[in-house]
Design a protein that fits this description.
wza like fold; Outer membrane lipoprotein wza fold like; 8 domains
Length: 752
């Protein structure tokens, strides 16, 4: 008896836990805000529930299609907290996770699945359209009937549960199951007893009738079989089979896209093939009726197009379909594919074999479940061609029939460019391997008359590669300092001009050319030549440069960049001001430029430097004198901020209720806390502090058991942190709970 006790207890607790989870999930349907949905999604994920299970539960609670769509969107959204509880199995080991991720990335998509994964598509049909001719009226449809002519009237009626509409002084008219045109004819016949002009041929007495569908009824359909979220759905009467399937998430991994049955009154009414829509654009425009059943069966034959076609992936094939049908579904071969054969890798009992099908048999060859289809890609190989590279006007491939000799190939490329030399090389292949090089002299007739063979390549030599590249360097205060190619006759003036000229701080009389003289074989390594330029870049001693020379342009002596600071807030004249001297301080700035207003907060002034607040303290309530310890030296880019007077005190953190109260001169730290209901039990009094309006922070100080709280000023914020929690310590409540559970278990064991 005792042996069976523990499994029974475990089963009972599991059922109870699961029922609690279900109750929590069911409440999702009652929340419309994203934050509440995100919170519940995190909880359901930690409980191990899947998206399909959550959707089912939400639907049973009356969730609307747009709410289900929001649930799907948030399920994998980045808004979910990264701090959510992690499964224990994830913490235990990460071995093999990388391989699993790789396999997930390489998952082969089924043809048509993108339609049901597209977030831009809505499962709701277009309601503001003309009523389709094949739409059948039914209970719940709202109609608008307009009479005009010799008599005018408008009726708004709804088809009742028994399929009729009722007019004053007329018998009920049965319209259920009729199209709009048929219903219009029946209404004319029935209402002619009230409006004789409906059947009159006299233009003066004739009455016309116009019938339109004001609002379509809602229908309840059942979607079952191999779909992502099977269940019962309430949708608009304008909904088609495709709308309903989209609402249910579409066929699942084993669901058929080609054998979807619409069951009406217990019989198969229509079989839908979604490939007709995906490939041919034929929309399955079959409108649903109340209590219709959509059955998605499992696929029969699934083949995989591996490569060589415009659309690769898994395709569902019917028994009678052939390779040419599959080619049509995939959009055809790629441009560089070999189209005369298709290669099929087929399962034979316990192994696979490869079968080749020729193009003339594409319309005869059947495919089997599990086939892997591919087409070969052509190599970048051009037969009967020769090529030419280098300094010619039209380099590239040429037909060997029009370029049989070296000379003919050069003529086909429109001749040599001016930088070509008479030297060239012929590269020749032997059995596909380039293993022969022939040196050519283009001044010799016998070399020009050399016969070419297939795949020969001629490379013409350029004079540029025969000359070693030499450079000079321009450094310092020019607009584009860098290395430049050296040319004979280049001067220092030329070097400055090609580097986009002097910049605004260049010392034009401080230009020097640094020249390498190590080739003289003496102690001197470099020679420095000083130059003086005027406004027009002219110099009396302008010199010609040598390879590897460095042209250096120095800065104007003692020149420094202008420095400025900004003043903003409650001052007479906010704006930008210059830093006059090297030791220009905040005191100087106030004395020279800053005049405070009546609304200026003297306790809140600070300097913002690199996004850091530097508090400024006044000795007196005057803008002319500051305390000596506040003589902060200003830097370029500093912002002096003078905020408006704030006569409030804010209390946040571990208090009964965070609050904002009006500042009073006699108000103390503890009085402000009392106004917030006092400290919480887990408040850390020792680490409480005050943040003043100017950014200054003062912490509570303790001496023995006496706490010295900071002074409160206008605009202050009191912060009371929580005590750090010792997670290893067992609370008294937990100990009592453990003891009670243990006593209960012992009592149950004794009872057995």
């Amino acid at each position: 008896m005792i042996k069976n006790f523990f499994p029974i207890c475990f089963l009972f607790l599991s059922i109870q836990s699961f029922s609690q989870n279900i109750d929590q999930v069911r409440s999702i349907a009652n929340f419309s805000s994203e934050s509440e949905l995100v919170s519940y999604i995190e909880k359901t994920k930690t409980k191990g529930l899947s998206l399909i299970e959550v959707e089912k539960l939400a639907l049973t609670q009356g969730a609307k299609p747009n709410e289900i769509q929001l649930l799907r969107k948030l399920w994998n959204s980045n808004q979910l907290s990264k701090s959510s509880t992690v499964n224990e199995s994830t913490l235990n080991s990460s071995f093999g996770n990388e391989q699993e991720k790789k396999e997930e990335k390489e998952e082969i998509k089924r043809f048509g699945s993108d339609f049901f994964n597209n977030k831009n598509i809505s499962e709701a049909p277009q309601l503001f359209i003309a009523t389709p001719l094949d739409y059948r009226l039914g209970p719940g449809d709202e109609l608008t009937i307009n009479l005009f002519g010799s008599s005018e009237n408008t009726y708004s009626v709804q088809i009742t549960r028994d399929g009729t509409v009722k007019f004053d002084r007329a018998a009920p008219i049965y319209l259920s199951g009729l199209s709009i045109n048929s219903a219009k004819k029946r209404l004319i016949k029935s209402l002619s007893k009230l409006y004789t002009g409906l059947l009159s041929s006299d233009e003066l007495n004739k009455v016309e009738l116009d019938l339109s569908l004001f609002k379509a009824r809602s229908v309840v359909v059942n979607i079952t079989g191999q779909v992502v979220a099977p269940g019962t759905y309430t949708i608009s009467g304008f909904s088609s089979v495709l709308n309903a399937l989209y609402a249910a998430g579409g066929p699942n991994n084993v669901g058929s896209y080609r054998n979807i049955k619409l069951i009406r009154y217990g019989k198969i009414y229509k079989t839908i093939d979604l490939y007709d829509y995906f490939v041919g654009g034929s929309y399955p425009n079959i409108y649903l009726r109340d209590q219709d059943v959509i059955l998605v069966e499992s696929y029969s034959n699934l083949v995989n197009i591996d490569y060589g076609f415009k659309i690769n992936g898994l395709f569902e094939i019917k028994e009678e379909e052939k390779i040419n049908d599959l080619i049509k579904f995939s959009g055809g071969f790629l441009s560089d594919s070999y189209k005369d054969k298709v290669f099929v890798n087929r399962i034979n009992s316990y192994s696979r074999s490869t079968i080749e099908y020729k193009s003339e048999n594409y319309d005869k060859s059947k495919l089997m479940d599990g086939d892997l289809i591919s087409a070969k890609s052509l190599r970048n190989f051009v037969e009967n061609s020769v090529s030419i590279e280098g300094p010619v006007y039209l380099p590239g491939l040429y037909d060997i029939s029009s370029a049989k000799t070296v000379n003919q190939l050069i003529e086909s490329s429109k001749g040599l460019t001016p930088d070509a030399v008479s030297k060239a090389f012929l590269y020749r292949k032997n059995k596909g391997v380039q293993d022969e090089i022939v040196s050519l002299d283009l001044n010799k007739k016998e070399d020009l008359a050399l016969l070419l063979i297939d795949q020969d390549k001629i490379v013409i030599i350029s004079s540029a590669i025969l000359n070693s590249k030499v450079e000079i360097r321009v450094e310092g205060e020019v607009n584009d300092p860098k290395k430049y190619d050296y040319y004979k006759g280049m001067t220092a003036r030329d070097a400055i001009l090609i580097s986009s000229g002097f910049n605004s701080v260049a010392n034009k009389s401080g230009v020097s050319v640094i020249r390498n003289v190590t080739s003289r074989n003496n102690e001197k390594l470099t020679e420095i030549i000083n130059l003086d330029f005027d406004e027009d870049y002219n110099s009396k001693n302008n010199i010609k440069l040598m390879p590897d020379d460095i042209v250096s342009v120095k800065k104007i002596p003692f020149l420094q960049n202008s420095k400025s600071f900004q003043v903003e807030g409650q001052v007479a004249v906010p704006g930008f001001y210059s830093v006059k001297t090297n030791n220009y301080s905040i005191v100087d700035a106030f004395n020279d430029h800053i005049e405070l207003l009546e609304t200026s907060s003297l306790n809140g002034i600070y300097v913002l430097r690199d996004s850091i607040k530097i508090p400024i303290q006044f000795g007196k309530e005057s803008n002319s004198k500051l305390e000596s310890n506040s003589k902060l030296e200003l830097k370029s880019g500093d912002i002096i901020n003078v905020p408006q007077i704030d006569n409030t005190v804010t209390v946040v953190g571990a208090v009964q209720k965070e609050s904002i109260s009006v500042f009073e001169k006699r108000k103390t730290f503890k009085q402000a806390i009392s106004n917030s209901g006092g400290f919480l039990d887990n408040a850390d009094l020792k680490r409480s502090y005050v943040v003043y309006q100017n950014g200054l922070i003062k912490q509570t100080r303790s001496f023995w058991f006496i706490k010295n709280y900071p002074r409160i000023l206008p605009g202050s914020q009191i912060v009371v942190p929580l005590k750090s929690i010792n997670t290893n310590k067992t609370s008294v409540g937990e100990i009592v709970g453990y003891t009670t559970s243990l006593v209960s278990i012992i009592a149950l064991i004794k009872a057995f």
